[in-house]
Automatic annotation (TrEMBL):
<feature type="compositionally biased region" description="Basic and acidic residues">
    <location>
        <begin position="308"/>
        <end position="331"/>
    </location>
</feature>
<comment type="similarity">
    <text>Belongs to the OSBP family.</text>
</comment>
<dbReference type="InterPro" id="IPR018494">
    <property type="entry name" value="Oxysterol-bd_CS"/>
</dbReference>
<feature type="coiled-coil region">
    <location>
        <begin position="399"/>
        <end position="433"/>
    </location>
</feature>
<dbReference type="GO" id="GO:0006869">
    <property type="term" value="P:lipid transport"/>
</dbReference>
<feature type="region of interest" description="Disordered">
    <location>
        <begin position="308"/>
        <end position="338"/>
    </location>
</feature>
<dbReference type="GO" id="GO:0005829">
    <property type="term" value="C:cytosol"/>
</dbReference>
<keyword id="KW-0445">Lipid transport</keyword>
<protein>
    <recommendedName>
        <fullName>Oxysterol-binding protein</fullName>
    </recommendedName>
</protein>
<keyword id="KW-0446">Lipid-binding</keyword>
<keyword id="KW-0813">Transport</keyword>
<dbReference type="Pfam" id="PF01237">
    <property type="entry name" value="Oxysterol_BP"/>
</dbReference>
<feature type="compositionally biased region" description="Low complexity">
    <location>
        <begin position="1"/>
        <end position="13"/>
    </location>
</feature>
<dbReference type="GO" id="GO:0015485">
    <property type="term" value="F:cholesterol binding"/>
</dbReference>
<feature type="compositionally biased region" description="Basic and acidic residues">
    <location>
        <begin position="14"/>
        <end position="29"/>
    </location>
</feature>
<dbReference type="GO" id="GO:0005886">
    <property type="term" value="C:plasma membrane"/>
</dbReference>
<feature type="region of interest" description="Disordered">
    <location>
        <begin position="1"/>
        <end position="38"/>
    </location>
</feature>
Length: 470
């Protein structure tokens, strides 16, 4: 399934989760086993082999202009703006959230460590890895319909996951995941606030993410960085993450502060992440550095400061003057900046915490999906009979887009949106309130902030009172 990752510390292996076969974009041969899209091969070890390609390649966006839609939306909140389906990717936002679980081995690693510092290091790497799948993913996921759900059980990776769209205005997605070995709980609610700023679209994250390590009786909370897509009008689209992410261990008082750096002058800081872990007395225990698109390392503070001083002395000797014109054009340069491909400067003695997974060879023709993302909308044989009728896999617009039927997908998207509007008007007419099915409003038990909490019972599979949304 593509979960192979390098770890130079030598104390962990991801159980050899390799991609068994190369990608094949022929829609008539999307499974080399000869099985249809709904069937999944069982490997010799008894684990399901998930698909390695989509049924049809990505639809070209070159003939479409987003400017005609967005020019009236500068500075406005974009959740109420209807976008043509060509700018989407064939996944719901609920499925995009599930991609947090792609690097679940880091949670397993955190559970296995006896040292709280090493647990925090693994959790910090997991928080960074959660946004790594967004690299080069410039397609927009489908807005979930109110009441839409998504479930995923991966016995090979040791977790199950359930999410629900609990609010439409504002759009709020709630999720809950647990280890099949009862070793962790991962939950939260996401409310991305989108704004258009002329040349870029910014997604400001709202909502708390919580990870509980049950064996250690620890809970960690954080909020994701801000995501920004540049050059939405003209030029090559590129994406950056920026902002400060604070991960708090509510049991020990330890805190990890990660600074996702903005692009800066001439793209020097593009994709860079720097931060540190401190104890409850604010003593720095280690420094973390790397790129969210590449890898993450850690070292002790003394080694890091010594290296930085040496680097600064060397750079001052080679320093060139920067003209006023260069400084004046910094903002324009940043907006047009292509992604630079330089690697992270390794500091001797550092320990590798995480490295991004290799993507399928033809990922660029499949919306830049990772191997994990390719499998998310897979509808296996017999699954339709046990899924909730609100599951994303059953959405006809997403399914048709995935199969390359763009005209049908666009019509289905309009039909579903109109059905949702009609249902909302009917509820308003009868003065009936919408009731969520699997989550309820409450307070985060560790931060006290408003949150959506899992009510339980989904996997009992009593779906008799689920709404008809498709």
């Amino acid at each position: 399934t593509g979960f192979d990752s390098d770890n130079s510390s030598g104390d962990f292996s991801e159980a050899n989760h390799k991609v068994p076969e190369m990608l094949d974009l022929d829609p008539h041969q999307s499974n080399r086993t000869g099985k249809h899209n709904g069937e999944t091969e069982i490997q010799e070890n008894g684990i399901k082999r998930h698909r390695t390609s989509l049924p049809a390649p990505m639809f070209s966006r070159s003939d479409f202009s987003v400017w005609s839609i967005l020019k009236k939306c500068i500075g406005l909140e974009l959740s109420k703006i209807t976008m043509p389906i060509v700018f989407n990717e064939p996944l719901s936002f609920l499925q995009r959230i599930t991609e947090y679980m792609e690097h679940i081995y880091l949670i397993n690693k955190a559970c296995s460590h006896a040292d709280p510092l090493e647990r925090m290091q693994a959790v910090a790497a997991f928080a960074v890895s959660a946004v790594a799948s967004q690299w080069e993913r410039t397609g927009k996921p489908f807005n979930p319909l109110l009441g839409e759900t998504y479930e995923l059980t991966r016995e090979d990776l040791g977790f199950r996951f359930i999410s629900e769209q609990v609010s439409h205005h504002p759009p709020i997605s709630a999720f809950y995941s647990e280890g099949l070995n009862k070793d962790f709980i991962f939950h939260g609610s996401i409310y991305p606030k989108l704004k258009f700023w002329g040349k870029s679209i910014e997604a400001e994250p709202r909502g708390t993410i919580t990870l509980e390590l049950l064996k250690h009786n620890e809970a960690y909370t954080w909020t994701n960085p801000t995501c920004c897509v540049h050059n939405v009008i003209i030029g090559k689209l590129w994406l950056e993450q920026y902002g400060v992410v604070e991960i708090v261990n509510h049991s020990t008082g330890d805190k990890c502060v990660l600074n996702f750096k903005p692009c800066g002058l001439f793209g020097k800081e593009l994709h860079r992440v720097e931060g540190y872990i401190q104890d409850k007395h604010r003593k720095k225990l280690c420094v973390i550095y790397g790129k969210w698109t590449e890898c993450l390392w850690c070292t002790d503070p003394t080694t890091y400061e010594t290296y930085k001083k040496s680097e600064k002395r060397g750079s001052e000797q080679k320093k060139k003057s920067v003209s006023e014109e260069d400084i004046k054009s910094e903002n324009d340069e940043a907006d047009d900046m292509p992604e630079v491909q330089d690697t992270v400067q390794f500091i001797p003695g550092s320990k590798l915490l995480w490295r991004i997974n290799c993507r399928p060879p033809n990922s660029s023709q499949m919306y830049n999906f990772t191997s994990f993302a390719v499998s998310l909308n897979e509808l296996e044989k017999g699954m339709e009979a046990i899924l909730a009728p609100t599951d994303c896999r059953l959405r006809p617009d997403i399914r048709n887009m995935e199969n390359g039927n763009m005209d049908v997908a666009s019509k289905e998207k309009e039909r579903l949106e109109e059905k949702q509007r009609a249902a909302r008007k009917e509820r308003a007419k009868d003065e009936v309130e919408w009731h969520t099915r699997w989550f309820h409003q409450g307070s985060n038990p560790y931060t006290g902030t408003p949150d959506w909490l899992y009510s339980g019972g989904y996997f009992d599979r009593n779906f008799s009172d689920c709404p008809d949304i498709y």
